[in-house]
């Protein structure tokens, strides 16, 4: 498995991935990912960082987007990570989240947030293992297509704190590796 920045040769495999991902995971996307031309449009973006996790056979098995906020929250990036259910438990989400943290630092962001449905306990644990801390619980905030409401957990990571702490300990390469 390899994490790569989104490139033109990923368009069709990424669209296949989006069609494969269960409907329940579509709440994780900021846009309607099945909309024609959307993925091609992402290739023209400057500021958001998007990448895919590609299996050895070229199949896209994960997607990450780091979407910088604007205005008074321009120091904050919103992270979206989605992994193919067949590839879960293999560290794909962790590698995608690490990619997002590195992109946050490279973009000069000082905080990254991720929203996770409270039922997704493994995903919350994975993000906490990377240094994300719960900041908010929004009750009945997500409504799935069946009309069922779910709580949403907002986790945050201080990008500045991680890098300054690692630099002072001489471990800058740990997060990147």
Provide a brief overview of the structure.
The protein has 177 residues and is an alpha+beta fold.
**Total domain modules:** 1
Low-confidence stretches: none
Q: Look up the CATH topology.
A: Aminopeptidase
* Head-to-tail CA distance between termini: 15 Å
Average of per-residue pLDDT values: 88
Helix content: 25-40%
Describe this structure in words.
By secondary structure, the protein is an alpha+beta fold. It has one domain: 3-Layer(aba) Sandwich (Aminopeptidase), CATH 3.40.630. The protein is 31% helix and 31% strand. It has 6 helices and 7 strands. A hairpin with a 5-residue loop joins strand 6 and strand 7. The two termini are 15 Å apart. The mean pLDDT is 88.
Looking at this protein, list some descriptive labels.
alpha+beta; 177 residues; Aminopeptidase; 6 helices; single chain; 7 strands
Describe the secondary structure blueprint for this structure.
Blueprint (H helix, E strand, L loop, with lengths): L1 E4 L5 H10 L17 H5 L6 E6 L5 E9 L7 E8 L8 H15 L4 E7 L3 H9 L3 E11 L5 E10 H10 L3 H5 L1
Parallel strand pairs: 4-5
Antiparallel strand pairs: 1-2, 2-3, 3-4, 5-7, 6-7
């Amino acid at each position: 498995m390899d994490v790569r920045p989104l490139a033109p040769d990923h368009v069709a495999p990424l669209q296949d991935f989006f069609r494969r991902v269960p409907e329940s995971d579509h709440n994780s996307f900021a846009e309607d990912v099945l909309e024609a031309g959307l993925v091609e449009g992402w290739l023209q973006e400057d500021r958001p960082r998007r990448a895919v996790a590609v299996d050895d056979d070229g199949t896209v098995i994960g997607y990450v987007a780091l979407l910088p906020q604007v205005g008074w929250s321009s120091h904050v990036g919103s992270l979206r990570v989605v992994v193919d259910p067949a590839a879960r438990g293999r560290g794909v989400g962790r590698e995608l989240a690490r990619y997002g943290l590195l992109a946050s630092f490279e973009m000069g962001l000082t905080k990254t947030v991720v929203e996770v449905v409270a039922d997704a306990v493994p995903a919350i644990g994975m993000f906490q293992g990377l240094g994300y801390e719960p900041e908010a619980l929004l009750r009945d905030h997500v409504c799935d297509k069946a009309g069922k409401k779910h709580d949403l957990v907002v986790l945050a990571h201080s990008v500045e704190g991680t890098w300054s702490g690692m630099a002072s300990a001489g471990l800058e390469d740990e997060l990147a590796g």
